Amino acid sequence: MKRYAALDIGTNTILLLIAEQTIDGRLQTIMDMETTTRLGKGLSKTRKINPHSMQKSIHVIDRYLSLCLDEGVTEIVAAGTSALREAENRLDFLHRVRHRCGLEIAVISGQEEARLSYLAVASDQKWSSAPLTVIDIGGGSTEWMYGDTSGEVRVFSQGIGSVRLTEQFLTSDPIEDRQYQAMARQVMRLLTKIPRPRENTSLVGIGGTVTTLCSVKQGLREFDPSRVHHGLLELKDIEEQIEQFKSLPLRERRTIAGLPPERADVILAGATILLHSLLRFESDRIWVSCQGLRHGILLDRFFKEGPACRVREPDRS
Question: What is the pTM of this model?
Fold first, then answer.
């Protein structure tokens, strides 16, 4: 069977998915991993990728490509998202990756990122027959995707992500309440521009924030996708974890079961975005999916599995 790989080069993490096509045409995961590189560290202030993050990210990409070679991958697709869309020196980064790794990275639009991320969730049999609202909390931005059974997807995006908000507001350790409240007010203000979904929609979260919160809820010492994928987060779970994160200095947050140490500094901001999204939508729960952009890339490019998703022209509200 042919093996394919997708790289999702994000603001906070770089993710690798290696998969092959089964006899009945489905995507079967062979390897799925992520590494925190903070490609977007300081980007909101400098508009540039800093040298350390650039070098670390290139090293991770090179390592991923070696894994692809070891696993017999025949085709690789790489997509860059928020950080590479914004960085003034992105061409330098793309050139270095091309020169050192021989990899071409396609910097995709926010609309295309949302379409592919939505496809990853909509192709899951658990949610294939229902209207969906998908929330993708990233390091630099958050997207809310509204789809129906016709395959049309409406996308709303705001420049609030776990890394961006942490750098803008949460600069003390432990977090001062005035800083947290200022961040929460910013999140609530921007969420007023996001419409509420229809009542009968299934609400699904993707990305590192929601999978981490689900892992913390279960106290997992090691991340286990089989226990996180299709998991459920209730409003009270998120509220309790936020209070825990706020009360602890960073060194103690890093010891929480289920919370990767490299996410300990940004999880509070991500959880706050999720909390206020649920409050805005008047929902008390959200399903968790471990699938995301990388799955959508492979489904769209090689597998042609699931509904044909098309993004409606951006709403101007």
Answer: 0.93
